[in-house]
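If you are new to this repository, start here. Below is one unmodified record pulled from the training split, so you can see the exact layout before writing a loader.
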Amino acid sequence: MTLAQLDVVHSRADQDNIEAFFRELQKFHLNGVAKLFWSDWVLVDPEWFFTPESLHIIHKNFWDHDTQWLILAVGESEIDFQFSILQPTTGYRHFHKGILKLKQVTYAAPSGVIVAVRALLHFHYLMQSPHIDDHNIRHISAALADFHANKHAIISTGVCQGKGHTVINNWHIPKLELMQNIVPSICSSGIMGQWSADITEHVHITETKDPVRSSNNNYDLQICRHLDHVDKCNQFELTTSLLDCEWSTEELEGVLEEFANENDETDGDVDDIPAGLPSTSQ
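And here is the target side for that same chain:
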């Protein structure tokens, strides 16, 4: 479906016209990639090689959706209160002031919402197991089925909201759709723990997020200029380090040559020792 949507975008706008091209991409909620690297692979299925990883599928999904549903269901002050009374555990962060700072009148969460979120949390917990067999796969699938059986309560109570507190009445959420690929991915590629986005996320922070925080929101121009300056500084540092290494090599060769000459002179002195005297060499 993504390839078909990209074909439509290319038919409506030239990719060299960035603003017009991006406007068409946003209509399909695409992120701006003009051509997918696997687009010309025969009989390709991205589900087989795009393995899930815990940062986005579990942790970010939990905050973006699960947490927000519960906040809207029970109220912000109630969420803070429940977190504040948890028993502190050594080695784990304790939110003694809660996770929010706003105050709101509380009320009881609908039971269907609690059941759906509990099933989703159980699903997230099971899929992170370091050892998964057929028995675990059945439990993971059952937890996901339990969520699907009760998720209608989230829609019907209006706690599924988007930007501007707009109520969402559908499940067109990419992170939730990716949950259908978890079990097939585990069966074909192994446990999730071996797949990590830590390296690329760290690069995203150092190369994009940090420069943006120091700018005045003129993103396109300043981020490109920043990356250009960083690249030039790296090239300069590499060149000077190679030059220093060359000098160090020449100095080392000179020291080794002097040491070899001294050894030659010492060997000559040993050879001149009279035959009647004991020699230090064996």
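Two things worth knowing about this chain: Residues 219-271 form the longest helix (53 residues). Residues 102-107, 277-282 have pLDDT under 50 and may be disordered.
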